[in-house]
Design goal:
The protein is of the alpha/beta class. Helices cover about 45% and strands about 15% of the residues. It is built from nine helices and eight strands. The protein has a six-stranded mixed β-sheet, with helices on both faces.
Length: about 230
């Protein structure tokens, strides 16, 4: 009987150890101490419509895609550049569509309007607004992670905080404000862009796992709880 009780206690403790701890708001100060994660797969830059056609054929044969865009930052009030890059990733390959050369080409439009392959993004509504500045299209099958993480109580919606909160690793944002209209993107820019798209797949998989298993505990910060009571 003692051994049986000991085993039950051990199993209970083990279950608690395996339960993922999430926070409604993740402490930004903790992010710098986390190990850095980056996309380690193959990156292909797409510059022409013929290249885009082949890339889109391949991508739409995949089960799920991660998507993101990059725009040259403007440091002049009232001025905004058009989207320069559309990055679309699978688990092990990422295509970088240089929209400042391609524009909204037929193949890019076909990708954006596809209704069969789920494409996972973050704050994708803003990306779509930017893409619409390049031309008209009817958005296809997109899933915005921000809508779904709210359902489990997470309030921090940036990619860096979400990844730290849900997967315990840091995504570097050092290249975010670099010039995405350069003639040739450097390796750091390409890796950054690919990581952002690939990370959306990883977050989606983890979110689905947690929704299916309910194997998580949400910690609400005390100050947040007090604000809710008022």
């Amino acid at each position: 009987m003692y051994c049986s009780r000991l085993f039950r206690n051990f199993a209970h403790d083990l279950s608690k150890m395996m339960t993922k701890i999430l926070y409604n708001k993740f402490d930004k100060a903790l992010i710098s101490s986390l190990p850095t994660v980056a996309f380690e797969g193959k990156i292909i830059v797409v510059l022409s419509e013929s290249e885009a056609e082949k890339a889109v054929d391949f991508l739409l044969s995949c089960p799920v895609l991660g998507v993101d865009t990059e725009t040259r930052p403007s440091f002049k009030r009232g001025w905004q550049y058009k989207v320069a890059l559309l990055q679309v990733a699978t688990e092990d390959i990422c295509f970088l569509f240089r929209l400042n050369y391609l524009g909204l080409s037929p193949s890019v439009r076909r990708l954006l309007e596809d209704t069969t392959t789920p494409k996972i993004g973050l704050s994708w509504h803003d990306d779509l607004n930017g893409l619409h500045r390049l031309g008209d299209f009817r958005p296809g099958y997109f899933i915005d992670l921000q809508h779904h993480v709210k359902e489990i109580g997470i309030e921090d919606l940036s990619l860096q905080k979400l990844y730290a909160n849900m997967l315990g690793k840091k995504i570097s944002k050092r290249q975010q404000l670099s010039n995405w209209e350069l003639d040739v993107l450097d390796d750091k820019q390409k890796r950054y862009a690919a990581t952002d798209a690939w990370a959306c797949i990883q977050l989606y998989k983890e979110l689905k796992r947690l929704e299916d298993t309910q194997d998580y505990e949400l910690i609400v910060k005390k100050e947040e709880a007090k604000e809710n009571e008022q």
